[in-house]
Amino acid sequence: MNIKVRYMFGKKKKETPAIDPVQKEMIENAQRRIKEKRGLFTHFVVFLVGAVGLIIISQVMMQVEPMKILNIEWWIWVLFVWLLLLIYHAFKVFITNRLLGPGWEKIQYDRLVQKQKDRIAQLEEKVATAHPLPDTKIITTSSSKKRIITMIAAAGANNELGKDGDLVWHLPDDFKRFKSLTTGHHIIMGRKTFESFPKPLPNRTHIILTRDKNYKTDVGIVVHDLSTALAAASSDEEPFIIGGGEIYKLGLEVADRIELTRVHGSFDVDTYFPEINKSNWKLIRTENHPADEKHQFAFDFETWERI
Q: How many CA atoms lie within 13 A of 210 on its CB side?
């Protein structure tokens, strides 16, 4: 079966590009520096305005006996303290924050963390030496999770699959289900099905089954029999067989489950899905999908399991 239409059913949603972490850190640092320099400039302006104001006040107060501290007029002391604050602010902006900024803090943090790790490792070594654990045998058991080989297809009322290497219906919700079930898994298919794709299906490992011993591709694993195809997918707990018709016939002998979209209708096709023998298979789940403005035909999502 050709699933070209399954892959082409919708446009990929445009995603907002992520900011590189290094660029983000540089932007945040620049914003922080701008804020600090703006504060320093504001302080400087206020200092100048205040200084002029104090000088004017002192000239007015010359008519009376001015208050002095250590024989120095009070407003000079105010200016002196204000100037010290300005110098401190400038030192913090141009010296302290550059030499002892986020980079310096990260280095100090990493050093402290490493010291703690070294200390913990030393304590663990002392405990292991003083109180060794008794010898134990490690017993390994095979995974209890059973590997499930699944065939996935869409077929008409008379097991019709498609014609001239393509589907004869357009069912967007079926395309979404196919993508949801197969993403992250190995998908086994015939050469014609593979070549019908505009490009490889994303986030899936393609295994191409063909009789052509010279057939090669850089975007999939080429095999020449179904047993080798299943061996190539041995790391996957649920590989999928996705067609076409001849591959489905082979897969029916080894599959544990069938995810079948049964399309309500009869169609003119040249490729068929194999007949499901109900003495070997049991329908465990079905979900009806009526025809609507996006789906010309009604269909059922069926899940079959081998008895």
A: 17
Q: Note the pTM of the prediction, 2 decimals.
A: 0.55
User: Rounded distance, CA 292 to CA 298, Å?
Assistant: 8
**Tokens matching residue 145:** 């999770």
Tokens describing residue 43: 């302080």
- Contact criterion met (CB below 8 Å) for 154 and 261: yes
Helices then strands (H, E): number in the chain? 9, 12
Closest by Cα among 159, 162, 170 to 190: 162
Strand partners, 84: none
φ, ψ dihedrals at 150, nearest 5°: -115, 135
Name the one residue in this structure whose structure tokens are 């490889």.
200
When mean pLDDT is compared across 94-108, 209-223, 224-238, 272-286, the lowest value belongs to 94-108
Give me the DSSP letters along 60-98.
HGGGS---EETTEEHHHHHHHHHHHHHHHHHHIIIIIHH
Indicate the pLDDT class of residue 111, thresholds 50, 70 and 90: confident
**122-131, 132-141, 206-215 — which one is most confidently predicted on average?**
206-215
Asked whether 1 and 245 are in contact (CB, 8 A), the reply is: yes
How many CB atoms are located within 10 Å of the residue 70 CB?
Answer: 5
**Helical pair 21-60 and 74-91, crossing angle rounded to 10 deg:** 170
* 290: DSSP letter: -
* 240, β-bridge pairs: 150, 187
